[in-house]
Amino acid sequence: MLSPAEISQAAESLHRAESERCQIGLLSLKHPGMTVDDAYAVQSAWVRRKRDLGRRIIGFKIGLTSKAMQQALEIDTPDSGVLFDDMLFEDGATIPAGKFIQPRVEAEIAFVMKAPLKGPRVTVLNVLNATDFVIPAIEILDTRIVRRDPETHETRRIADTIADNAANAGLILGGRPMRADAVDMRWMGAILSRNAEVEETGLGAGVLNHPARGIAWLANRLAQYGDAIEPGQIVLSGSFVRAVEARCGDTFVADFGIHGTVSCHFGQGTASPDAGNP
After folding, report:
1. Which end of the chain lies in a sparser environment, N or C, as judged by fewer CB atoms within 10 Å?
2. CA atoms within 13 Å, Cβ hemisphere of 130
3. pLDDT tens per residue across span 86-106
């Protein structure tokens, strides 16, 4: 277990990395015994730091929902992070150059809640009943922690990802809002294009067999700490496509067919020298 001082120091390092657009080393390498609970403690300390500076929580994101990503990190459960008000961009927005360090883009389904969800024992049906509407979304990922250590070649572990607010950086909502009972989200898919070239395709079933399962998992996990998903909050249910690197000048469109499109453009500027590293 990390000490309170080590947790505070890690959170401050992440905050500085985000502010200065300069990555820090692997926390899992610095603290070899770092656990998932340690990682969430670091994330919570960083969240408190952000809130102290006036940033407002607007919801949550769920990550590592696909089997491929879980197997890559040798885990069998998703992870989660916190969404803040300054992470939300308008559909079609231009993301300022230099806003992020190594941005990547994913397509997913966002849930907007009308009623609270408080675990334990929250089910998929509870999630559907508490949902105001679902809507197509793009999530922007970023990494304040290096993806690979340059000396040891060790890669990020689950503790690094969780501490790094689940690599969360931004979100865009677009397309057509739909009632949760009006669409079969397992078959709700998207074509993710970069500069009019198709990069990824996928279906909602790739997210734990149903995107609402991730929301139920999150509500039950939050209950362990006395927290809940609140009315009006946005929850990104998890990506059903591979994350695609976002370069300066790139335009992304996530085409959800009859459910509409959502898009963003990354402004021109100087890219990070590490951009594109695995």
Report:
1. C
2. 25
3. 999 999 999 999 999 999 999
Digit-coded pLDDT (tens) for 200-212: 999 999 999 999 9
Give SS3 for 183: coil
Q: Which two tokens stand for residue 114?
A: 């009308």
The domain spans of the chain are 56-266
SS3 content of the chain, % helix, strand, coil (to 5): 30, 30, 40
Alpha-carbon 98 to chain mean position: 19
In this predicted model, what pLDDT tens digit does every residue of 15-65 receive, in sequence order?
A: 999 999 999 999 999 999 999 999 999 999 999 999 999 999 999 999 988
Helices vs strands, H then E, count in the chain? 7, 13
Q: Are 2 and 122 in contact (CB under 8 A)?
A: no
Q: Is the backbone of residue 201 left (phi > 0), alpha (psi -120 to 50) or beta?
A: beta
Q: Which residue has the higher pLDDT, 68 or 114?
A: 114
Q: Output the pLDDT for position 65.
A: 85
Cβ–Cβ < 8 Å for 253, 261: yes
Sheet holding 261-266, edge to edge: 93-95, 261-266, 251-255, 189-194, 197-203
**Could you tell me the two tokens for 238?**
């998890």
Query: How far apart are alpha carbons 232 and 240 in whole angstroms?
Result: 24
Percent of the chain with pLDDT over 90: 90
Cα atoms found within 13 Å of the Cα of residue 135, Cβ hemisphere only = 18
Q: What are the two backbone dihedrals, phi and then psi, of residue 231, each rounded to the nearest 5 degrees?
A: -55, 140
